[in-house]
Amino acid sequence: ETWRYAFEEALDEVQGKYAQKFKEEVEANSEHEIQLFPYGTLGESADIMEQAQAGILQFVDQSPGFTGALIPEAQVFFVPYLLPQEDEELFEFFRTSKAINEMFPELYAQQGLELLSMFPEGDVCLTTQEPVRSPEDLNEVKFRVMTNPLLVESYRAFGATPTPLPWGEVYGALQTGIIQGQENPGFFLESTKMYEVTDVITCIGHNNFTTAVMANKDFFDGLSEEDQQVIRNATDVAFEYILEYQSGLQEESLEKIKQAKPEMEINILSEEERQPFMDTAGEVEEAFIEMTGDSGRKILEQMKQDLAAVGG
Ligand code: 6CS
Does the pLDDT of residue 312 top 90, yes or no? Predict the structure, then answer.
């Protein structure tokens, strides 16, 4: 049997590397084949999610940045400064978190999805036309965010004018000046050439880009136990592989950007400069709880416990 797997990035970007490893493992350990559909082959993130829910796709990688309407609790990943900045802590959190490994699967299941894995893709930085040293510098800046209400709240709290857009519109909107900024992890800033349409990169340590891989639940439930185990094992192998793959990737990517465009300004803000951004975390948390009620509050509390357990 051939299984179809779509994701939001190119084959040689992080989601694509994960998908290739997953495919390799499944094909090595079963009679099944996996057909990969990178970004752009089947539409935007929202389209591939619809196709996965409808069972046209067996697997999909959709980031919580686009899942907010479907699963409001997934927006928890946009409370700024919640995730640890240290790689080892961050990775251990994803491995061991009860919120991620037990609570989120139930919420995804209610939407017909078997959550297989959540993993980080890298430290998110801002790219803009002008330097950003404080929230004041974001005043009047139309800043593109993924289509996620809490991310909108978060950038409003940072002082910007948030503009939710699907990925496909971002390059053109920056080029024509409809927006003046966006955020993404380093590897993606480099591979999608964001430096061609913005002049400054600012890292404030506010988030690590989280993504999620899932299967259509009816499809998954209908598989033999053996096939389910093949998928779970492939997920585990791909998860460890993708953490390893990211070692040093952020620094290398920023270095490549410098080489491609030497006049690009890259600023890593100091603790002191980050403070006013960090101070917004409380109000964004409150907005999250307002949007998600008790269920969101429980997830947030569990995440904090899970983070404390890994020293975050
Ligand atoms: O910003 C976005 O929309 C995209 N960013 C990444 C790192 N992956 C996919 C997503 O569509």
Answer: no
